[in-house]
Specification:
Elements lengths: L18 E4 L15 H6 L1 H7 L3 E4 L3 E2 L11 E5 L6 H13 L3 E6 L9 H6 L13 E3 L18 E4 L4 E4 L14 H16 L4 E4 L20 H13 L5 E5 L5 H7 L9 E3 L21 H15 L6 E2 L9 H4 L7 H13 L4 E5 L19 H12 L4 H11 L2 H4 L30 H6 L4 H14 L2 H4 L1 E5 L6 E8 L2 E8 L5 E2 L10 E5 L7 E2 L4 E6 L1
Helix pairs in contact: 5-6, 7-8, 10-15, 11-12
Bound molecules: 1-O-alpha-D-glucopyranosyl-D-fructose.
């Protein structure tokens, strides 16, 4: 199957693109340290080109003490030595470009590491020029400024005795929040962005961008009053370079806010990652309190986003990333029906309007992992265990939550081969390799024409060859059906139908009259039947 080359000189090229997220620590090690590196990514570019993707979203590779796997940056213009050198990064950008693959870097602008020069200076004294780069409140060691709680557990405030002050952090204490009210902070961050644009980076993913405009006195973290002013300035000063693609991580986005973020005039960002669909299968706002997926609600959620942003903004399409459990274990079936359910979920997503993001290993149908607590590395998992057991939860119940929802599920090393450490490293992997790599691995997928890998390749090719994927309007069929997700996309005389059985049982479904003689673009069963078989998915098309 020939790859269709995307013309990136066209405005809005990213609307036809498919991106692939790499979590560098877990992708490919070439030095035997047990940690993936930039040369490892370079060595796998041909694999990614074969898949057909147009860009790589690279999780953080800048210098970092790695308290939160690189989301704690100590130097925004340096490569962490554990991943390689600046020369390796330049080589990656150039080698990727040769294959028409853009590099999209991850920008952590809400907070820095406590080891960043700015924070080390800020700690020196209240009148240090960098002190006001962070957020401080005077007080004594016994009285927290307020009761705000950080995302990773514990208060959002940490006391510095020699200053008699608390500093604010929405994540770990080693990730102090930057003070966006200070114009020098903003200008400093823009200069880091320009540094990478000059190196040839073609876009950015912006970590927790909806949390930059915080106001601790009002206990506001997400969607602060100045958020969109800050974003417009950021965009004007740093992103107007021709053709840059920008995607903001915005847990607090709803459809109306997303219209601002992704306004077609480009005044803010290209698009955002919103998470409404990722929060439906839980009983509280906390992801740890998991529940079965309510399909009717999921469908309604997608319908609102698809129709809401049509011509008014742009969607990103994803169900996996480095913070989320593996989708085949979550909404599919990671045992008997692993292959058909992985393909079904891909069909559901890739038929929609927006820019798809594939997370490393998703194209192989990689699954969650079940480890004893001490084998996990993620700071969030350990803090959760500490906090929930202290609150009276049984250790067994907490472990269930971790197995279902822990972030390390997504971070186990990429499974390249059936051999030792899945071909990821010759050393000791920093996080356990999933034992199922003997069955689930890239080598096996590439040798099997019916694999999940080739199914994704086909979906990517379709998206680039038929404009209905990019432009078509969205209509949800049978909204009340609790088992089948079906929708149509229409554009002039081009019509697309997507049908997905979300269950492990055969279910009745009548193909709409107009599609009776339509062509099957892709399907996860080789033939048709009167019912939809377990996790069956079909994409039909006619003009
Ligand atoms: O994540 C933002 C965030 O709040 C959640 O995704 C969080 O990781 C967790 O899943 C909530 O339970 C971003 C990054 O994607 C994440 O890896 C970082 O740890 C976090 O920001 C801090 O930079």
């Amino acid at each position: 199957m020939a790859n269709l080359i995307l013309d990136k000189s066209k405005r809005g090229w990213w609307q036809s693109a498919v991106f692939y997220q790499i979590y560098p620590k877990s992708f490919q090690d070439t030095t035997g340290t047990g940690i993936g590196d930039l040369q490892g990514i370079i060595s796998r570019l041909d694999y990614l080109q074969k898949l057909g993707i147009d860009g790589i979203w690279l999780s953080p590779v800048c210098a970092s003490p790695q308290v939160d796997n690189g989301y704690d940056v100590s130097d925004y213009c340096a490569i962490d030595p554990m991943f390689g050198t600046m020369a390796d990064m330049e080589m990656l950008i150039a080698e990727a470009k040769k294959r028409n693959i853009s590099i999209i870097m991850d920008l952590v602008l809400n907070h820095s590491s406590d080891q960043h020069f700015w924070f080390r200076e800020a700690l020196k004294s209240k009148d240090n020029p960098y002190h006001d780069y962070y957020i401080w409140r005077d007080g004594d060691a016994d009285t927290l400024p307020n009761d705000m709680w950080s995302v990773f557990g514990g208060p959002t405030w940490t006391y510095v005795p020699h200053l008699g002050q608390w500093y604010f952090h929405q994540f770990a204490p080693e990730q102090p929040d930057l003070n966006w009210e200070n114009p020098k902070v903003r200008q400093g961050l823009y200069s880091f962005i320009r540094f990478w644009v000059d190196k040839g980076v073609e876009g950015f993913r912006l970590d927790v961008i909806d949390q930059i405009a915080k106001d601790p006195d009002l206990k506001v973290t997400t969607n602060g009053p100045k958020l969109h002013d800050f974003l417009r300035e950021l965009s004007r000063e740093a992103f107007q370079e021709e053709g840059l693609v920008t995607v903001g991580e915005a847990w607090g986005a709803d459809v109306e806010r997303a219209k601002l973020y992704s306004a077609p005039d480009g005044s803010e960002l290209s698009m955002v990652f919103q998470f409404e669909h990722m929060g439906l299968d839980q009983t509280s706002w906390q992801k740890w309190d998991f529940a079965p997926l309510p399909l009717v609600k999921l469908k309604d959620c997608y319908r609102r986003w698809q129709q809401g942003l049509a011509e008014k903004g742009w969607n990103s399409l994803f169900v996996n990333n480095h913070d989320l459990p593996r989708i085949v274990s979550r909404w599919g079936d990671d045992t008997v029906y692993r292959v058909p359910s992985a393909k079904m979920l891909a069909t559901m997503l890739h038929g929609m309007q927006g820019t798809p993001y594939i997370y490393q290993g998703e194209e192989l149908g990689m699954t969650n992992i079940k480890l004893p607590l001490e084998e996990y590395v993620d700071v969030e998992i350990h803090n959760l265990f500490r906090d929930r057991t202290a609150e009276g939860y049984s250790p067994e119940a907490v472990m269930e939550s971790i197995w279902k929802r822990g972030r390390d599920n997504a971070r186990t090393p990429m499974q390249w081969t059936a051999g030792e450490n899945a071909g990821f490293t010759t050393g000791k992997p920093w996080l356990k390799v999933n034992p199922n790599h003997t069955e689930i691995n890239a080598e096996a997928a590439l040798a099997d024409p019916d694999s999940i890998f080739y199914y994704y390749q086909k979906l990517i090719e379709l998206r680039k060859s038929l404009p209905v994927f990019r432009e078509g309007s969205f209509e949800l069929l049978c909204p009340e059906d609790e088992k089948v997700f079906a929708y149509t996309r229409d554009m002039g005389n081009a019509h697309l139908l997507v049908v997905c059985n979300f269950t492990s049982k055969a279910v009745p479904f009548e193909i709409p009259e107009a599609f009776r003689n339509a062509k099957t673009l892709v399907a996860n069963y080789p033939d048709t039947a009167d019912t939809l078989r377990p996790y069956e998915a079909r994409m039909l098309y006619y003009e």
